[in-house]
Amino acid sequence: EGRTRAGVTRKTPVAEVTEKQAAAGKAPYLRDMDRMDNRSTPAWLRALRDGGAAAFLETPFPHAKLEAWRQVNVAPVVETPFSTPVDGDGLRILTEEDIAPWAPDEDATWAVFVDGVHAPGLGRAGALPEGCFAGSLREAAAGAWTGEIAGRIGGAAGTPNAFSALNTAFAGDGAFLYVPNGVELAAPVHFLFVSARTAPNQAAHPRVLVVLGDNARANVAIEHVALDGAPARFNNVVEEIFLGQGAELVRQEVIEEGADGRRVGLAAAVLGRDSRLYSHTVSLSGAWVRGQTRVRLAGEGAEVHLNGLYLNRGTDFTNHDLHVLHDAPHCASRIAYRGILDGASRAVFVGKVHVPPHAQQTDSMQLNKNLLLSPDARVDTKPQLEIYADDVKCTHGATVGGHPDEVVFYFRSRGLDEKTARAMLTYGFAGDMIGNIPNQAVRRRADRLVLDLFSPASAKR
Fold first, then answer.
1. Residue 362 above 80 pLDDT?
2. Mean pLDDT of 208-230
């Protein structure tokens, strides 16, 4: 054994990392872990980090022999020696002008994070009810919310894979939203994560924790964006959500990683009795993007709606892997994802609904629709049902194809040229999902980008 990371024991010190581990791309991360200063870190956070480091060391990176990763080539992430700046070194200072394109509505509480670290000089503190918190995870953990954080963080993600373990090993700052029992937030909360580093091949490990007490209500938007010209980088995100009895959360996630961004994201949620989660994910850009969503309907009468839209261009790769566990009777789940693929891009969609024997009266539906704009674009879709109960109502389906020729012909018979007809149909295909986003600021930005890409005017340029 060796002593590393400010005196914390780890089974294998970095100096003795095996050739096999180094070849697997772990050595750069382990060296950066050793540079972290744990002297002022609370005991519970130090233990959390050490558990993540140990799990990362012992868990191989995902590979094609694992069923959940069988159609995913992880080489663009695993084979690149990404470095992780620690303790705020090398952070770029941003101005309000830099982040103005993503500014939310004036009444929203707004917290900004630069490469995973809270930037207190940016954003806006809204008027939150007493007992609520929306802002820096590090700040909250040092104050009155230590118990709420320490007792939950890591509890929803479950058994870690190498990426989520890596995120935990670097846990420090991130976003935290807490709404106590019976409180409803009148205005939305907005968390903006900005990739701003100018050096190539650097990694960030943002963390998000959302906790709603019994009968609490909140609307949260989480955006991950890259500044123009940001070099190749890796964002490794873990988000955990806990909803108490009768709570309701509306969640919007927007992913704009840019042309060279690579990303692995895990969003895990645990829903109590009669709680509701409405989730809307829009993936607008990124060279390599994988998102895992894990939802456990832990209380009777819980309900989850997972909506998503992904836009792929060039050689972009997107993978959405969703798993809903109906762990109580009388629960409902709805999954509706749509993809638009152009160029030689590729997407993989996996949706799984698991209904154990005790989850009677389950009501579940999932549908994945994909629109291919190029003969070189490809999508693999796999909606699944795993049912062990006998009193359920479950459906699933998927579609893949281009614009129906008869519909294009109809538009052309009304005087439109073919490019305009196809652009209008594409915009309408995406608009069905964007129109469901409750947050007005997020909906406007997503609609503006899709309109710019697929509007009839764009088709004629």
1. yes
2. 94
Taking the C-alpha atoms of residue 269 and residue 298, their distance in angstroms, rounded to an integer, is 10
Q: What gap in Å lies between CA 214 and CA 318, rounded to an integer? A: 35
Q: Phi and psi dihedrals of 25, rounded to 5?
A: 85, 15
Q: Alpha-carbon distance 381 to 337, whole Å?
A: 11
CA dihedral 439→442→443→444, nearest 10 degrees, is: 120
Residue 228 per-residue DSSP state? T
Angstrom CA distances, 134 to 83, 111, 128, stand at 29, 8, 8
Q: How far apart are CA 252 and CA 434, in angstroms?
A: 11
d(CA 106, CA 187): 9
Across 131-143, average pLDDT: 92
Q: CA quadruple 441, 450, 290, 34: dihedral positive or negative?
A: negative
Helix (H) or strand (E) holding 393: strand 392-401
What's the distance, CA 167 to chain centroid? 13
DSSP assignment letter at 447: H
Q: Give the total residue count for the chain.
A: 461
Give the mean pLDDT of the chain: 88
Q: How far is CA 156 from CA 101, 262, 337, in A?
A: 33, 24, 23
Residues 286 and 234 sit within 8 Å (Cβ to Cβ): no
Helix 43-58 / helix 162-169 crossing angle, nearest 10 deg: 150
pLDDT band at 261 (very low <50, low <70, confident <90, very high): very high
Measure CA 71 to chain center: 19
Three-state SS across 2-69? EEECCCEEECCCHHHCCHHHHHCCCHHHHHHHHCCCCCCCCHHHHHHHHHHHHHHHHCCCCCCCCHHH
What does the alpha-carbon distance between residue 311 and residue 313 come to, in Å, rounded to a whole number? 7
